[in-house]
Amino acid sequence: SSTSFAPPSIASATWPRGAHDDARRTLCRIWAAIVIATIVQARQGSTRLPGKSLLDWGSTQSLLGRVLERLDEAEIGYGCVATTIRPEDDELAEHAFQVCGWDVYRHPGDPNDVLGRFIGCIDAMPDPPDAIFRVCADRPFIVPELVQAMCRYWERTPGLDYLAPSSVAQA
Q1: What DSSP string describes 10-25?
Q2: Which of 36, 95, 101, 142 has the smallest count of CB within 10 Å of its CB?
């Protein structure tokens, strides 16, 4: 299917699927009364540095692996890597799913349509979350404590449509 969560060799068909532990299978972490899911945007077709998501980061993991590891340390709950169905992203999707243990959404639309990828990923969820934590796959310096602080800020500030790290730092 064009919206499968992993490359055809993995053959996942339902949301959520992945090599997650039981705690992550709860779909999303509930911070008091809100449900938050993380979506990491990734693709291999960068024009400035093609293939950057799978570049070695240190001796033990990829750049994408480092980003996902830092998000796991933040313990905000369910996460999904949103990529394209282009053949160049097959290895990325398989890496995210099999090596990193994250679910993968493969968007059939324009590879440059990041918003479409996010909407498709959210639409594939049986119960859309209250909030999405959006992360770029080329940001290895994510601070788990800042991610948690952002979730707490979101929880105690009703009516927010958007929250950036600078908003939390000023609070």
Answers
A1: T---SSS-SS--TTGG
A2: 101
Distance of CA 72 to the CA centre of its chain: 10
DSSP letter for 97, please.
I
DSSP three-state, residue 154: helix
Q: Which of 140, 149, 41, 28 is nearest to 79 (CA)?
A: 28
pLDDT tens digits along 80-129: 999 999 999 999 999 999 999 999 999 999 999 999 999 999 988 877 88
Residue 151 to residues 25, 34, 104, Cα–Cα distance (Å): 19, 9, 23
Q: How far apart are alpha carbons 128 and 166 in whole angstroms? A: 26
